[in-house]
Design goal:
Blueprint (H helix, E strand, L loop, with lengths): L3 E5 L5 E6 L4 E4 L24 E5 L3 E3 L1 H15 L4 H8 L14 H4 L6 E4 L2 E3 L1 H16 L4 H14 L9 E8 L5 E8 L6 H16 L1
Parallel strand pairs: 1-3, 5-6
Antiparallel strand pairs: 1-2, 3-4, 6-7, 8-9
Helix pairs in contact: 1-4, 4-6
């Protein structure tokens, strides 16, 4: 399979991709489907089909406009979600699992080669996903930052991809009202999570606070 042009909407949703020798990624503002640009497309003379080129798969894609559109829209939606609805959105393979969504440019670019430019940062798909998690989590106004970071670590450990050096913990004995001692395990940063993931989740917190 050769190079293919990718055509997306203003939120990064993939509307179409064509094996035409062009690795370009093109944004079509206001488009809802391929019908909105396909009449202008020609595999030899007009692979852009009127879209704005923001980069190439396998290279760096400037997502300053489309990611801002997406994360701001999802932050507004998150504010109205209950806990169960939020969990369903952010779970693995859920609607907001960006790096695994092949119908978005972030999932399509989760290939170990493509990077994304947002603000002053060069990020990979996993970084975008963690940043997004931080933003929508803060926007929900239900969870503390510490709780979200802990949950990210719990997910990493549940997936079996955590490393021992990330699992900083301490056993503590507490005595309840009945006088019976109970041993609990207290996790410390990065709570079993990849420190890189925690970094981008925190960046998402800060982004939301700047809004």
């Amino acid at each position: 399979m050769g190079p293919e042009s990718v055509h997306i909407d203003e939120f990064g949703k993939v509307l179409g991709n064509y094996e035409d020798g062009d690795n370009g990624v093109y944004v079509h503002q206001g488009a809802n489907s391929s019908k909105d640009y396909k009449k202008d497309y020609d595999s030899k003379t007009n692979t852009a089909a009127g879209g704005k080129k923001i980069g190439e798969l396998g290279g760096t894609i400037d997502v300053n406009e489309i990611y801002k559109n997406l994360v701001d829209k999802n932050a507004r939606e998150s504010a109205d979600l209950n806990i169960l609805q939020f969990r369903e959105k952010v779970r693995g393979r859920g609607d907001w699992d960006l790096k695994n969504d092949k119908e978005s440019i972030f999932g399509l670019g989760n290939d170990g080669k493509t990077s994304f430019k947002f603000e002053a940062n060069i990020m990979e798909a996993q970084d975008i996903g963690n940043h997004h998690f931080g933003v929508v989590g803060k926007a929900n106004h239900t969870f503390t930052e510490e709780f979200m970071l802990e949950q990210a670590g719990a997910a990493q450990m549940a997936a079996g991809t955590s490393k021992p050096e990330w699992q900083k913990q301490q056993r503590r004995v507490i005595v309840g009202g009945s006088g019976t001692p109970t041993t609990i395990i207290v996790m410390f940063p990065p709570y079993g999570d990849d420190p890189r993931d925690q970094k981008w989740i925190k960046a998402g917190f800060k982004y939301y606070e700047r809004k």
